[in-house]
User: What shape does this take?
Amino acid sequence: MVSPSDPTGTGPQGPVHDAGPPRPGLWALVERRLLLNLATGLALMATGIMLMESISRSTLSHSYFWAEESVRYLMIWAFFLTLGAAGRAGHMIRTEMLVERLSPRLRQAANIATTALGVLFSGVLLYASIPQVLRYRSMGMLTESNLDLPMWLLFLAMPLGAVLMGGYYLGALRDALSGRDPYQVADADPELLSDMKGPLL
Assistant: This one.
């Protein structure tokens, strides 16, 4: 980076090179490279099955019994896998008309309250979903279609999504307690997949 006192961009040791933007952390890479790609693949599979089912119904007057069920659970998994990444990229629904008009101290209090509620909601979701998964596993329940998939494996997406969302809100709460705006941090990079600059634990 060129400084006003050194317009040539050279220091005592030679040319000074700009370090560039910071590299994303390990968990941001896991979310971007693994979870988002996996969720996208599941959503594309669900879309393909829906198209196949609609074409089969309209042209062959035949319906696949497993199609509706597979689409439902593929979309459930795709949704819960992206909860943490959506918050980190600034895509969680929030209203800013009131908060933007508050004083800095009240705005920080609002950020602390909303992120703490996010942590609480994630904890309640995790607490409520784990017994359900354990119950389905102990009962050995299978899906209604001829796929015969174990229900506990399908509903495992709920506690996993709760952990991902809770991780995001814990990082956001840490930023709010330190005086930073966690939502501005999430919106800092206009490129969604470039750096994933949202709060990380």
Notes: The radius of gyration is 23 Å. Helices lie at 26-60, 67-81, 83-88, 104-139, 151-155, 157-177, 182-186.
